[in-house]
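Re: the request from the purification team.
They wanted to know what the chain is likely to look like in 3D before they choose a buffer screen. I agreed to run a prediction and write the result into the notebook, where they can find it.
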Amino acid sequence: MSADTAIVAIMSATSPNVVKPQAPPARFFLVAPAGDDIAATKTKIASQLAPLHATVSALSSAAPRDLVITIPDRTFVGPAQGAFLAAHALEDALGLAPIEPELIHAIMPIDQLDDRRELEAVEKFPPGCWVDEESEIEQNKSWAVSRLRLQDAWKLSDELGRPSRGAGVAICQIDTGVISHPELAGVVRAGSYNVIGDGTTPEDPTDPLNYAGNPGHGTATASVAISPESLDVVGAAPKARHIPIRAIENVVRISQTSVAEAMDRAVALGADVISLSLGGIWSWALQRALERAVAADVIVVAAAGNCVGLVVWPARFDDCIAVAGTDFHDKPWIGSCRGPTVAISAPGQNVYRAAATTGRSGQGQGTSFAVALIAGVAACWLAHHGRGTIIAEARRRKETVQEMFRRLLRATARKPAPDWDSFNMGVGIADALALLQAGLDAGIGIEAPRAPDMVRRGDESLRQFALEAFGPPALKADVDWMKFGGETSLAVLQQKLRGTAPGLESAAGAEVEVPLKVRQALEAVTDSSIAPAIRPARSDAGQPADGRIVQLKQMIAARHAAERSTGNLESAGAGDLRLADAIDLESSLPPDAPMPHPDDILQRVSAVMAAMPPREIGDPVAFGQALEVMYRHGGQALSKLPDVGLGPPQHFAASERMALEAIVIADGSRPSFLLENGLPPASHPFLGIWAATMAARREDIQRVAGCVGRVQPTHGNASNFIGTATIVDAARGLALTNYHVVDDARRKWLIPMTANGNRLSIPAGLEVDFAGEAATLDQRRFKVVEAILPDGFGRGFGSVDAALLRLEPITAGDRLPAGQVHLDARAAFANGGVPSLAVIGFPGPAPMSGGTDVDWNFVTNALFGNLFGFKRLAPGKFRRSLGFDEHDTLGSVFGHDATTFGGASGSFVLAWTDQEMPGFGIHFAGVTSDTNSAIAVAKIADVLRKLEVSVA
């Protein structure tokens, strides 16, 4: 294949590097053949790819033949399949294989919920396979260290006069970087680096905490490994030295190439142990970097992975030590990946760790923490014997330090129960005391070490992966596993991920198929019953149109019909159309109702966006990029809408569905208004069909809005808050919110609370601010002194997700806002008796970025100027009657479609057109592209009355 063909393939797999802010350039990894002149090879490749302004450089100084092709002006944003096709085209053009694209991908979920219906507290976790926090751990915060018998191991070293607690040993953690944290105070740095290049200096590993997906992951894992014995968290090796390397911007979105570069950097900085609390797909770059680290006498340990079942890479590599996770009772953690490549297990469920976003500590789960603990165990072992002694003894036994440590770790492991799953969870749980007590020959008769000069195929981990994924016949398949390793592993792991954590897919377009050649080879040796498992559905086919797509079509068609009857809805005559008529149009239009041309819709959106107030635009460049992305994906989706409900099912890709959601927000069909002095804007391009009603109800809106406050930690702000609360009894200082807002304040923000029956005393740390508007820095803060929980309280569906907050002034003489919101228990409201409604609260940024090739989080947030955490009013429509959700065992939840973005928990759902705007529901959850959920006051009225709350 010619270089021109490869260039065409690269161009089709990439887009200009402006679709996402600061998107990484397209990169490919390859290895120059042994014996070739490296400089000549680099020059030749750069010449062949000159039209793309490609550069060719070494991955690191330690690997001059490991080359990276960088296309600075392009970035991978299309389907991941295209990136692999481009790599194969390069292989043919350059005569080199394998060549792998650098894909920012998500295969290892971190600290996430096990249900896609997300409670809309600000600090939500994406879906996963997680357990609740455990109260017994609060009385035994160092339980994980105890389970590994580390305190006994430290005591042994002390008694023998040897270095203990990992003293003098350098642990390198390749992660998101670290911040200054009380739990890390006193830790000695042995070096640092920032592979990403976003630090103030090349050596600055500071984690900016400016991303979703568990910010501060590097700080949390560091504390588990090396935190001194001073506060709540006790590290496994509290006297070890620390080498933090920032190599990933978000632990659930990693680049194997960057991690490989970081591993070389770790060796150069003198790391004795490398801890990898991350995981992803097979990578030739990472495999070679791992081999170099092991050859340099470094111990490398990695997380087995979370929630996808199969062990991920780099833990899966033969050279690596894979660590699975266990719980407080020495049982396997439910979310731990497992398989024959796991070497050892360690605590991973609700391990106490530092919380970077709060500056405190709390429980965290995942094999990320299990591997950090084993890194500390390795440091204690090296310190106890002396690294020089260990290296010499390993040489004498013709094994690497890595192999010696693995052998001894397994030989001294503690098997917690007779039925322990040794095949999938390793031989047992690590025992640090037994490890230090053991002679260096322990286990030699149990497992034979591999000599460093032993001939290896290089695809061992991929062949084992194929065996686990496709069954024994796969080993007979005629497949070049290394050539197709990246895309095969991504396809299989994504399929596993969709089964337990939908929406967490590759940033590069995600769904890929097992390559055709691999599929054909597998089908040649397997029967038809196995074949479906290796044929994942194509993502570009999308999903058939569902009820939500029909609703979106009705909204857009209704707006078109309304404009034709009243003129442009952004004109002064917008009030000529009654709100009730407009809402009725959305439900009554037949499937064949006239639809505007896609260009007309996008032109209307463009006109609305052009009229946005400058303060709500924020960054004009980001705003423009967001519009461009919405137009590009929205045009295709809009062209399919006319046929929805009329003929064969129309299929919508995830990006198209998200584009339609963005359009109905951005054209004013489902707007969200910032409030100023409790009032919505008198003039705004979003007003549209809502203009007349909002103009008539301004006094009512101002009265209700004044009673709505932002629940936050002490001195919180728009970027650090928990939910919304609304005054329901001003005389007694009572405000109503969700129970899960209180629960999050206790568990995630670590705000102290003591229980006495259904009452939680809150001595300090929690407040409600009844100002919180974007246009002012004014505050109106009151401290929360007590949370009163109703009978049947609990989180989300099937529970009474409500709580009363008792407020007191922070400063003597402060008065709560006058008035209160009246609660209305009319069941008719919760069954659709009020077709239009409104929500007033404090939404956080929209969680819209999962499972597509576009960062919809960026798009939506940019279109709203990133002004979140401020008081907003969002009008909408009643959608689903009581009991619509199968998980709602109490029959107390109804659905609505007001734009709540994320984090609006505790906001009242108000009867928009009824007298005094009573609250008839409490918003608590939402699913993007589906329905927001609220608990009906009608169903909890008696419970609230028992708390002496007035309910009409």
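For the purification team: The mean pLDDT is 83.
Please add any questions underneath this entry.
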